[in-house]
# Entry
Amino acid sequence: MTEEPEPMRDGAALPGGNVSGARRSGDVVLRPAGPWTPAVHALLGHLQRAGLDGVPRVVGVDEGGREMLTYIPGRSIDPDAEIVSDALLVSGVRWLRRFHDAVRDFRPAGPVRWRHGTRELAADEIVCHNDPGAYNWIADGDRVVGVIDWDMAGPGVPTDDLAFMVWMSLPLLRPLPLHDVVRRLRLMADAYGGPAPGEILRQVDRRMTLAADNIEAGQRRGDPGLLNLAAIGEPERTRTALRGLRARLPEIEAAVASSGSAGGVGPGGDGTTRIGGPLGP
# Structure
């Protein structure tokens, strides 16, 4: 946080924003702030100094108490209308790995106030984005050029973010054909550089149950952004989808275990990465 910013008028509402209610005014995004905002701004400052691409820069806080961040131009993704291409999925996972590498040495001293509570980082934890679904990607063609909505950031292990991305962006929350689930899961594991597909898969239920629990707890304490999610049926929508996943999980696990590296990604003869075909039969 910097010099006193100029007062700004409300701009146009940005797409998505079920939690944040973000608005754009010129090249600045205005978002409601909260007790977690100083920790998020410290995180974003660290990532900027580390040279991570695709991260909004902190401008300050306006006279109305809203945070001000730089606008990242590009295309937003509507997860209800689009399943991202293999190439864009790989780009998003590779960005996630760069983020995790950049954030490893961000170790705030003592307990820190995040959106879901005050916590100190455990030895095996990093500060995760905690909401890295494709709806928070900014795309240019098949490339992720920005990742937004950092207000859910907080302590976790790297596979928490990866499992969340598998749920939201593969997307495992939808009953896709089994061969597409296995192929895209292997695609994501290879793009990240480990852990194995089965390990990521086992993390999904735990991670998304925690997400539903956090939404419910935030709604009970009156968090306005999380109360907004009730309008789209959360957290019950996630809990219902998880019950569907549990019914499909034995079949998916068996297919992952038997698939080997077939149909996924791997080094081509020229050292590049092969990407599987389109979704569907």
In short: DSSP finds seven helices and twelve strands in the chain.
